[in-house]
Amino acid sequence: MSNRRLGLALPWALVLALLAALAWSLPAGGQDRRAVNRVGSFYVTEAEQAWLDAHKDLRLGVWLGSPPVVFRGSDGSIQGMSPAYVDIVIRKLGLTPTRVRASSFPALWELAKAGEVDMVGALPGAPEHESDMLVSEPYLLLPIVVATRADYPFISGLKDLSGKVVAVAAGHVPAMRIPRDHPAIQLMPVASSEEGLRALVSGRASALVAPEAAIAYLARERGISNIRIAAITEYSSRLSIGVRKDWPVLLTLVNRALASITKEERTGIRDYWTVLHDSQWVGRPQVWRMVGLVLAGAMLLLSLFFLWNRRLTREIAQRKLAEAEYRRAHEATQRIIESADIIIVGLDYAGHVRLFNRAGETVTGYARDEILGRNWFELVVPKERFPFVWDEFSRLVNEGPRGVADTFESPILTKSGETRHILWRNSVTGDDEELATISYGTDITNRLHAEEELRLTQFAVDNAAMGVFRVRPSGRIVYANLTGARMLGYTRSELRRMVVADVTSAVTRETWPDLWARLKEDQVVTLESVVRGKDETSLAVEVSAYHLLFKGTEVAIAFVFDISERKRVETLREDVERLVRHDLRSPTLAVQTLFTLFDRADNLTSDQRELLESVKQASRRMLNIIDMSRALYKMEAGTYTLYPVPVDLLAVAESVLDDLRPVLRASSVSMAVNLSGEPAGPDNVFMVRSEELLCYALLSNLIKNAVEASPQGSTVTLNMRAADEHVITVHNAGAIPEAIRSTFFEKYVTAGKRQGTGLGTYTAKLIATTLGGSISFTTSESQGTTMTLRLPVH
Known about the structure:
The protein is an alpha+beta fold.
């Protein structure tokens, strides 16, 4: 009986010994995963826990550096010393981050500056980084060394590499410090230490500056023996955790979590990524622990015979559990396949469909029972593409994934006959019975259409009728379309090396910041300028510039129009108008003077004097029109100078009415002139400070428009009153057509008049603005129209 008990106890003792050896020799990575669940010296206050609960789903930025610090493992996961520390911090804080991967640290840093990540797990120590993120205490310090080929001459440090090509990882400490400390060294920026090692071995670089751990690890893993550590630099790589600027609470918690990591945990991480891969392994205690594990396993084999019967029962139960787990996994896989938003199709060796998901039904329009068992290539592949696609499928089946490209773009025909463009990724199942390949297709039709639209837009911008330029805040021209380049006589590449001040004398490097500040404040700036071509010729242009903010980057888009022909025509028009005004004014003055002399004669009859007065008034109106046209031109150009004098508006109104008597009689419209609502008498005055010519033109346009818009037999009322400002109103019974109300005061806007020019209200508004006043209207079918002119009281 005692022997039987001894026989049963011995295997269990061996099992316990094995488990003890296993726990003793477990790699540091395993120790790390158990340790992070212990609280230790780490604590979180209630307020901090509330903050963590609200922000636990943060975005963690990770990047692919060089092993053993941070790199992609064979299973595709991010591994290394840095991720081990970050995992401890994540578990201690109870966070469930979404990892945002970047191919390099510069790429990740751009994401961090753009606010695309909340935390960076491996942030190289540099003062430049502290301006954009909060930086934790360093958790990893790695000495940086110089590696050369074994046959390279002896060096004592970086100073011996002057004039030599030295590979450095972009964005890391050496890449930022060496140009300042050793400017004579020719840097070769590389994406990672591994790429730098290849450059060193191939002879493209004389040396590699990188962390010693990365160089040693890569040399062992790649079997490189012809390099050596030649010198130690004055730099070291300090890795910290970066936190977004507005989360100081998280920085405090991260520092606390890092501080709570024990010395044993840190040693375990270091040993796991260095000891197990170190060529000097014989003297390591961990190796002897592994030897103990092997011996314990051998002892365990001796006891397997005694445990065989008991294990049979246990294996049967485990097999049932495994079958149930397999069923659950199979069902989960089916759910994943069905819920995927990409096409998943499985084909046998003849090309018949054996697997088809819901997304495939949606894209192709075929129901599952319509497509299963049918030949995929005959059903959905366009005939002209059939030979090429079948050849790709055959090579995939016969040669495996290495025989074809990773991705394969090929169109398909839907059930309705529509062509959809699909980007395929293929895999070989190795199932000799039924399923040969599984393909995963992403519908990129809309993306291709968007890309085509983008190309068309770019083509339209490049060939637009006006010049289009994109300018940075510094004034640097970063884009010019073909028209803009031809306008200035430069090539587009030449313009990209120039600034705005190089092409126009109106803007200098000193005045550009003021112009940019104005554009940033107003958002849109339109101005006329003169640009200077490559051949030193000048060109008059109109520039409309817009300030834009694209993904945090300021940029200006400028549209440049050639107005040299317009300027020539305007100058010609001004010359013609000036000549016409001069040639008309002189004879008109002569006529007016002549008839003034006639008026002094004593032998004229009353009819002759009335006719003479009519001619004098007509010549006076002609002079007013000539003088007013010159004044309006200056008002439009912004060069008119006002010389105000006291003017009686009632007297001006009487003069206007005298000139409009024929119009009033022809339209059967009467006129009423009021002062503060009461009829104006012959002794009343209404004084304003203005110019009589402007007042005459202003009232003449308003009253004439009102008379022409009034129904026959109605009355036009002119009312003047003084308060804080002079208010002059003109009312008529007609209504302004709704179609022109929004543009009533614009140039050439008219409706319902055979000979209307659309200049009356435009002229009135221009004069009112020149006098420092304003003009507006109210109109309706029931109340008629009231024009309200407001002039300041000087």
